[in-house]
Each structure stands twice: as structure tokens, then as C-alpha cells.
Specification:
By secondary structure, the chain is an alpha+beta fold. It contains 8 helices and 7 strands; from the N terminus they run E-H-H-H-E-H-H-E-E-E-H-E-E-H-H. A hairpin with a 5-residue loop joins strand 4 and strand 5.
């Protein structure tokens, strides 16, 4: 049985690394998320309106197309989105998605507020030494919340046995 993540706390060494870590935590907590669901839940205009990019989540093909567009320098220099080892967001179907790299303090605050509903918390700490610039700490649902007890309580069995004994004694005496 897979343990369910209850909360995730992300510490990133910068604003954009904190945002990246929060998205990694979200996908670990909700592993069956699709690209269209990500784009709908974390719509650029609502979450990171000042990025200068068209989308927060880009497929490999969209990144390649960006290298020929008006912001080609960003894509060629890999400044547009996270595409390094361990940085790609990996969806449940195995698809890899690049994540927007440009995050202001205001946009990060919006994302942090949005992530509260998913119990994912993010903070910036320049001293963070985590791989890919962020650390994630997960807390899991307790086993008592996940498991349910089976069977009847013992008192039901005792009352049932007493009734059966009383019936047996009645029919035996008559």
C-alpha cells in the first residue's frame, strides 16, 4: 500500500528554485496529473502573471519551437525554463515538462498562497544546499487514518453467544 502524502515543505535557494520544488512536490503528491490539468490549475495569468512567458509548463517540442521565436535567446541559453537533469517535471504518463524559470517575489507569493490548498508550503533560504537548488520534506498520513478495522466489536459476539446459550437452555429444558 502506498502511503499518502499529507504535507510537503519546500526550501529553495532562490525564488525560482522554490517554485520548481513546489511543483515537484505537487506532482509527487498527485502523480496522475496531466499537462492540461497542470496548465488549468496553475494558469500563468493567475499564478505568475509577470513572467514574460506564454506558458508556465512547456513540452520539449514547445521549447524547441521557442528557439525560433521572438524570445529565442532565452530558450537557447536555457533561461526560459528548467530543463536540466532532475529539473524536468515528470508527469504520471512519463511525459517530461519544462517549468518556467522566471519568478518574481510577487509571483512566488501568489504560488505559495495557491499551494496552501494542497498542503504544500514553500520558502526561500539562500543557504539551501539541496540537489537542484531545493529540498522537500514530506509528511505522510498516519496508518491509523489509512487503515480501517474489519469485523464486529467483541461485545456483539458476547451478546450473541449469551442469546444462543439462553435459547439452547430453553429448548433443552422443554
Amino acid at each position: 500500500m502506498t502511503r499518502q502524502i499529507s504535507t510537503a515543505t519546500v526550501t529553495g535557494k532562490s525564488q525560482n528554485r522554490t517554485a520548481l520544488g513546489m511543483m515537484h512536490a505537487y506532482l509527487k503528491k498527485y502523480p496522475n496529473t496531466t499537462l492540461s490539468e497542470l496548465r488549468a490549475k496553475f494558469y500563468k495569468q493567475n499564478v505568475c502573471p509577470d513572467t514574460g512567458m506564454d506558458e508556465l509548463f512547456l513540452t520539449h517540442q514547445e521549447i524547441e519551437q521557442g528557439k525560433n521565436g521572438p524570445r529565442s535567446k532565452w530558450y537557447i541559453a536555457e533561461s526560459a525554463c528548467f530543463v536540466g537533469d532532475g529539473e524536468w517535471l515528470v508527469l504520471g504518463d512519463g511525459q517530461k515538462v519544462g517549468f518556467n524559470k522566471m519568478w518574481t517575489g510577487e509571483s512566488l507569493a501568489i504560488l505559495q498562497q495557491e499551494m496552501l490548498q494542497y498542503q504544500i508550503f514553500g520558502q526561500v533560504d539562500k543557504s539551501c544546499k539541496g540537489k537542484n537548488g531545493f529540498d522537500i520534506t514530506y509528511e505522510y498520513e498516519s496508518q491509523s487514518k489509512v487503515e480501517t478495522s474489519a469485523g464486529m466489536p467483541i461485545w456483539v459476539w458476547i451478546i450473541g453467544a449469551a442469546i444462543l446459550l439462553a435459547l439452547a437452555a430453553y429448548f433443552f429444558m422443554n
